[in-house]
Specification:
This protein has 345 residues and is an alpha/beta fold. It folds into 2 domains: 151 residues, Response regulator (Rossmann fold, 3-Layer(aba) Sandwich); 136 residues, 3-Layer(aba) Sandwich (Rossmann fold). 36% of the residues lie in helices and 19% in strands. It has a 6-stranded parallel β-sheet with strand order 4-3-5-6-7-13, sandwiched between helices. It has a 6-stranded mixed β-sheet with strand order 9-8-10-11-12-14, with helices on both faces. It has a two-stranded antiparallel ribbon with strand order 1-2. Strand 3, helix 1 and strand 4 form a beta-alpha-beta unit. Helix 1 crosses helix 9 and helix 8 packs across helix 10. The radius of gyration is 22 Å and the shape is elongated. The N terminus is likely disordered. The structure holds beta-D-galactofuranose.
Length: 345
Amino acid sequence: MKKRFLGALLSTAIVVTSLAGCGSAAPANEAPVQTATIENEETPKAAAPDSSSDGKLVVGFAQIGQESGWRDAETMSIQNYAKEHADEVELKFADAQQKQENQIKAIKSFIEQDVDVIGLAPVVETGWDQVFAEAQDAGIPIILLDRTADVDESLYATFIGSDFIEEGKLAAQNMAELIGKKGKIVELEGTVGASAATDRKTGFDEEIAANYPDIEIVASQTGDFTRAQGKEVMESFLKSNPDIVGVYAHNDDMALGAIEAIKEAGLKPGEDIVTVSVDGVKGIFEAMVAGEANCTVECNPLLGPLFFETAAKLKKGESVEKWVKSVDGVFTQDVAKDAIDGRAY
Ligand code: GZL
């Protein structure tokens, strides 16, 4: 493993990419990305007992963006962990604003900075081979977080995230129960080419086709995982399909946009048209408590601790599982009121 110059331990620093200096993550396409260092006023500490001999764990993370409440929760989980463990980790964080070229630029920058580990939530599955090979040649392992990439397994150390096909299957089973296993439904897809969208569609559509012959998916279109586009697409669905009884959205944010569209069309979300979505964010629990949404399949975004613990193992040369699977629950309207106060995101 690379030798690292041991900088003075006069301060503990959290390095967060920020052009505005407000601590918010800056888009990676504003190269050269400046960094804000948060000094710790305390006197120099002895190295933390479990920090390795060559100093702090230095991690570069190329985040997709801020497209959904789920994404924001994941970002907070990562940044909060770095803040709380500033004496052991240094985080270089890039916000790619949902552009793959910005994520690739950020990864190249992390390689130039010679970080110990690179983390990435790939906005889409393809187009990563070359930059992953560059990281491998530099001896820097890659952790895929919350979305997978379509590359040879040898090019990344591990994927930490959910089973999206299973999520889609669970959504289909709950949708079928909610509409009495018959009727016309529509589907709001996530970002085109994203593994979370592709696999949630596969899991849902295949389950419906295999087990519910009286349910018809009459329209399916991307809303790019955003609330605004989810609303826009649902408006068009309602115009061309006035008799639908359900909407399946690949994330809660698009479902919340669809709920707005349903109400503006003079219909009752959660009753005239049932909603099933994925993520488990606070907003969908509020909608379920209000009777306007029916079911969410949880997808845990609080992956910061597991991410850094895995990165620390890789830095020490320890082997890790190729897929560290998140455990997800399902929440329906009847349990939402009791569950909402206990939700962490
Ligand atoms: C899932 C994650 C998805 C969320 C969306 O692991 O990649 O991206 O379901 C987010 O809310 O935009």
